[in-house]
## 1
Amino acid sequence: MELRFPVGFLWGAATAAHQVEGNNTNSDFWLMEQLEGSMFMEPSGIAVDHYRLYKGDIGMLAGLGLNAYRFSIEWARIEPEEGRFDESAIEHYRDMLVACRVYGVTPIVTLHHFTSPQWLIRAGGWESAETPMRFARYCEYVMRKLGEFIPYSCTINEANMPLAITKIMKRHQLSESVAQVGLNTEIKKKMETYQAELSKSFGLPYDRIHPFLSPLSEKGIENVFRAHTEARAAIRKSSPQTKVGITLSLYDIQSVPGGEAHAEKAMQEEFLQFIPYLKDDDFFGLQNYTRMVYGPDGMLPVPADAEKTQMGYEFYPQGLEAVIRYVAKHLGLPIIVTENGIATDDDDRRIAFIDRALAGVHACIADGIPVKGYMHWSLLDNFEWQLGFSKRFGLVAVDRATQRRIPKPSAFHLGRIARANALITN
């Protein structure tokens, strides 16, 4: 039996500009990908050429039966130099939004998805007290130009990610002496070369380079969330009809006996402490991929016998329901699932993941939780940051030699669910 979702439910898929557009030459990530000794497996290059092929991609999404598309506007394109806004870039994103309107697709626009302009990093990056103002100025400009086309805006993607990176780095520092002894000489040399090249390229000492995806101080993390609140105010002033939210990456945090305190601390750090910044939003963008389990000594490894994805995550689609319920308990806002998915070459497992995740979403809605949409990550197989093109999250495969799009069975499966609900509710 098909699950019945509410009238107006948003069925979609998501992308991020840098991962799909290609040639994002003014961004910090583009610079970091090109350097000698780069930590990136490969540069993004033309990516999957979405900057040129967006109309066909949006038409394909609609043709599958989906009615929403979450994508990001690239700050480094809009404002390639501080205070200089590129009108041709605005026109490009206007054309994307018009294409969404033509195809009956609701756009959910993210204004910052990990990448920043190079000039921002040279100006102190996300540790600078001026960054929230600069981000709000950019958001105000975009929304003044394009807000009439944007019903939903996410200010910052996974705003809690710098905190997660900071925690990982601290864990590594605790065992730094062991790591240094065990580190391959060639890898150490590559890291040193990369750090030197990065310093030269940005004209800053290595420890003063602060992109979004880097360890940030408490002040830096506060800057990220101040950027959200200042952007929210700017958006509401420029485009009052646009609903404003943020997205956070949240594990389904669990514990075994003795791990309860660790689990409580983790959720406090990753979600609860940020509620004061979020409570005045119009919606919450929830992103979940797996669970994290804590024991008496801290985080437990993924069980050896568990099914794992290409990312090394435990295959755990039921985590989405648990996280929705947790967020709903603590934050009284409508929820949009802005990312949920799996990296795999076994598309049958992607279909199984979607079905189990959607069953959880449906159960939450049946219990009165206002979940307004589900955006699968991702629409296309794309550039997965430091991991290059090696991980495949897409509903649609891409032949990168020809840029031909090849929808997978999972794309048609999710589209059938969306179409069935459209027939039921219309």
Note: The chain has 16 helices and 14 strands.
## 2
Amino acid sequence: MIRSSLRARLIVSFGLLALLTWCVASVLAWDQTRSHINELFDTQQMVFAKRLSVIDPGHLRGEGQLRETKKTVRKFRGEQDDDALAFAIFTRNGDMVLNDGDNGRDFIFNYQHDGFVDALIDDSNDPWRIVWLASADGEHVIAVGQEWEYRDDMAFAIVSTQLLPWLIALPILLVLMIVLIGRALSPLRRIAGRLQARRPDETETLETDNLPSEVLPLLNALNGLFIRTGAMLERERRFTSDAAHELRSPLAALKVQAEVVQLSGDDEHVRLHALKNLTIGIDRASRVVDQLLVLSRLDNRLALDDAETVQWDALLQSTIADIYPYAAQAGVEIALKREGEPAPLRGNSVLLSVMIRNLLDNAIRYGQAGGKTDVVLTVRGFRVEDDGPGVDAEALARIGERFYRPPGQEKTGSGLGLSIVQRIADLHGLQVTFGNRPQGGFRAEVNG
């Protein structure tokens, strides 16, 4: 659940982060507070020792001690610890002449130099912080001590007082975090609900109003996917419609010719004529299917993913050689001429060959029988010219539309050849223009 849920991962991550932050803050607070408390109490001990060091030693006769603090005032003595502060005064020989009546009487004389030392006292295993200081006359030594446990307890009390409320607030913070994360992720839930409610064929984009900027890239990507899916579905519907429209007539003609063959009986002439028409119909249907499949594959390509460097001269010669037998059968001569040398092109040589072949096939099909087709290399690309009748201005404006054929055409065709030419040119960033030659005939020009 945690691995698959973004909400759970965020809650756990932020919860652990808050707990880790609290722990780090506690350690730092403890260290800083303990350091400041030690500095404060060291100062207090030193000041107290200095005050004791100016006591007149002449007033000290024999060993003496103050009354125990807890017995000084039996009532209303307040909160007081025995180890908060203790002192003792020794002679240079180590004889105790005065103590505080509490823990000071257990001090062990171990004076070596003025300053702070850590030591133990009688009847206790707890370490003490003791400052030693010689008196002003040099005859006595003052010891003022404080138990380390007292300092640590004081530091812990201060730190816990400050951090305990934050520890108590952690569950509240976690609850608020869960609520805020839930609200922050609510746009994703709304988008998921809208996606779940969509129909399979629905391609409308999702609204992007009032959405966080972090969610917008995801929604924009989804909308882009819907647009591409919609375009693909439209192409598929158009392909199905085009195929049904264009194949209806050839298939009907094939059916008629097949019926003629069946009804011809012993009339060989009628049967052979029907079989010839049947073959022509099959060839036309096959050509329509091939052209439709090529156009469908081209429509589904958004870019060239297998580009290579293509030399126009070599590609034109290769394509002309491939189509030359078909041209010779039609009695059409194909000539390659040069008016310039175009720059090499980055593209798909197979698709470019299909484009050139369709232009040559169009020129051979609609040019004069026994005529001539010229392929001319130019600085920017090439052009294909035939010596046919050309097309009128109205038809010229629609040349290249799918399934459009100028009226009055007697040659068979699907009206897809020049559409394929334009689609391949678009994929390669080329521009195709159609027009009539001044001396007569049709011209198709491809420029980079």
Note: The radius of gyration is 51 Å.
## 3
Amino acid sequence: MTLSYLLDENVDLAYQIQLLKRNSSLVVFAVGDPGMPSKSTLDPEILCWCEEQNLVLVTNNRASMPIHLADHIAQGRHVPGIFILNSNLSMGRMIDELIIIAETALDDEYQDVITYLPVTK
């Protein structure tokens, strides 16, 4: 299984460029891209979009995303997963993590959970 990603608007667009440069078979969208949610879309709406489009959200939002996810699940909804980037690690390390995860994830492995990167040692 290969995961598809949606980068929230606060994630540097260099992530999208570098992910696709390093693995052109990945599906990586960003909030604000054509056909994606527009910038300033509220987080609960982003989670609904991710659920409907089967996209894993990549974000820096450590503060409110756990609350939004709990509310989303309480409504009987689901998300393929949420990955929170680690600001203490390099962009290169985070990109490596996202590629490894996308290429090796099992079906529903990250569903309805927030995963704080890195997952590999």
Note: DSSP finds four helices and five strands in the chain.
## 4
Amino acid sequence: MKAADENRRPVTGKPVPSVREMGNRRALTDIKNLVGAAPYPCAVAKKPMLQKNGRDEKKPALASSRPMTRKFAASLASKEEPEHQVTKTDSELGADHNKEPIGDGTIDIDVEQYEPVPDVDMDETDHKDSMSEDEFTMDIDSADSGNPLAATEYVEELYKFYRENEAKSCVKTDYMSSQQDINAKMRAILIDWLIEVHYKFELMEETLFLTVNIIDRFLEKQVVPRKKLQLVGVTAMLLACKYEEVSVPVVEDLVLISDRAYTKGQILEMEKLTLNTLQFNMSVPTPYVFMRRFLKAADSDKQLELVSFFMLELCLVEYQMLKYQPSLLAAAAVYTAQCAINRCQHWTKVCESHSRYTGDQLLECSRMMVDFHQKAGTGKLTGVHRKYSTFKFGCAAKVEPALFLLESGGTSPPSSGTI
């Protein structure tokens, strides 16, 4: 009766787990891969026993209320074994006749046979292990497949269209030479002031980048006197707000913000002139649309996002940065921000794939951003630095510049590793 006692009471003295706690697990002693050894009956009924006689048509079907003994369990298992296997006879099982049934005799019993684990195709496993990590991470849109605003079905086609048309949104890098009364420094003063107005009105990020784009495209085609340069700026912001914002500032607000230098009528007249000059083309890919895509490819957190936009807005003020296309500016901003945060060069294959730029292609533009970052808090045009020194923008301007990029070859400092 020692074996019977072991079946009813665990050796450890701990209470026997309930059926719910055990789930579908089987005791280790139930798993026997021995020829002729009858499996121990499972104490959990997963499904009712089929009313089937098997090979012996004369034997009655199993009734669900019949007590289960070891002899009865062995006889059931012997019917399922191949004829060439050796089974125990009734005389061999005679010692088990008097053993008690498991449970109260009312639970349906499902006798399970041990099934060996199938062999794994090692070649297939090795092939999966040898696949590069980038092949699994290239799809950056799978997490947004259920979000209709992400437009995952055609997002690649969308950015392909942006890349094909971004050149149309660019201006000549020397257009200021055609202006007679204004220069690049005046443009910088205007945009630095508009960044503060944008911050004061709490407008969307898209609005700022479209405003600067409208200004440059207008100044490329129209000669503007110095006294009307600010009028061009506030009118460009009004048009950008109408295109991007849900709640548009009224014209009177722009009159007040410009210290009543212009009337409402003058702003509306400039609005008509600007739209006609640009042929009502407001749909242009600015660095903002590329920035959002590249930040997603970089798997950015809030800090990387804010530092990247800080780098990009520093470039808005600089006339010389017009020589770079919007996509390259956005990619270089993310690259420079990663270098500043990680203190080493960091540009993954996923970022390279989605931006279409390598780290070497971004290095020239990135070095200029580092120089702007280093001088952002000095001089007279500090609007961007003050904006990103606030807690609202995560004090992104206080991140140390990635000065090691200015060194020959852009190698990282000895204290940090290069990725």
Note: The chain is about 45% helix and 0% strand.
